Fold:
Amino acid sequence: MTEPVRTRYAPSPTGIPHVGNIRTALFDWLLARHFGGQFILRIEDTDRQRYDPRAVDAIMESLRWLGLDWDEGPDVGGPHAPYVESERLDMYKAAAGDLIARGHAYRCYCSPERLEQVRAEQQRRKEPPKYDRHCRDLSDAEARERAELGTKPVVRFKTPLADVTRFHDEIRGEIEFDNATLDDFIILKSDGYPTYHLAHIVDDHDMRITHVLRGDEWVSSAPRHLLIYQALGWTPPKIAHLPIILGPDKSKLSKRHGATSALEYRDRGYLPDAMFNFLGLLGWSLDDKTVVISREEFVRNFDLSRVVRNPAIFDVEKLDWLNGVYIRETPDDRLAELLAERLEQDLPASAPRPIDRDIARKATPLVKERIKRLDEAVAMMDFFFWDELHYSREELLAKAFRDEPAKASEALRRVLDALEPL
Structure:
């Protein structure tokens, strides 16, 4: 590399981050660490209608749980602060004004009612809905007239009407779009907030981002972004669109496939290193056989050339198996502490606390080979720490004894005899 690699994770705080979103952050982090570069956290909070202030904390908590540290960001600062978009509005307004002055953007005064009428007519004609460029060539006098009426305009990019836009995707190769299929999209809203199309370009340029990794749903937006880079006279970063993550049934990953956020998996008892390993293999591989890969090995070997184009399958059974591997590799003392913490969290309120750590250490080897998740600890270990337990006959007896009372009684008698000295 001729310049330091700088990647960024720039989530929109509209909810708890999805595992697909966190997978992107992981790949960004790995690419930066592999090349000895910087990983930046930036909060893209310009969607004010969907903004959720709790989401920012959830984003940072997810990254910290997985060990994805950032070199620059809202909480640590850096040479390109601020790292929250709502604190950078002047930069976006300046860029929009520059584009207008260069003849690459214009103010649009169309009302929502007019735009809805245009869409309805296009649908009636079975045409793809897009802006009809009504304000694209307004004269200065017409623009002043509309402004005097008090209409707050948006700013739209003046997309070229002909030719094609080509770009190289670091994963998918050469891609091109016919400019005639693109519309004059909004880059600055009437409230002064930018859209994603403008904001991330201004930020990435200012923050010297060298690689942009994002989901493949953004492929169709890439030509719009490259046209803005060209219009501003800026060199775009390298772009890579990561494969989509699907459920085992090959449909888009959703709640019906189980948990969808990293924090949900944490709460279900998965270890961060296991989740790191699992997410790292969603669309990337070291070879055709290695599954258990340490964090250090990922950093040493990660490269975009190993990312595949095909969708990645989120297989919870594989995750459970992998988590079991990491549990068995955890030193007994450390695992005993994790299990004790989990028991303190999950046991009923009437159970004594804190958990006796000495008993936890002695009991850990009895379950270490059996559990796949930390949340399974209560079912296997509660009787060591809580006396108020009641078991049915079926729960106490092995399947072979349930239909033979005599054998069952003899078995229980022997158990009692063995326990009596204790």
Observations:
- The chain has a mean pLDDT of 92.
- The first strand starts at residue 6 and ends at 9.
- Residues 245 and 312 are 5 Å apart (CA to CA).
- Residues 19-34 form the longest helix (16 residues).
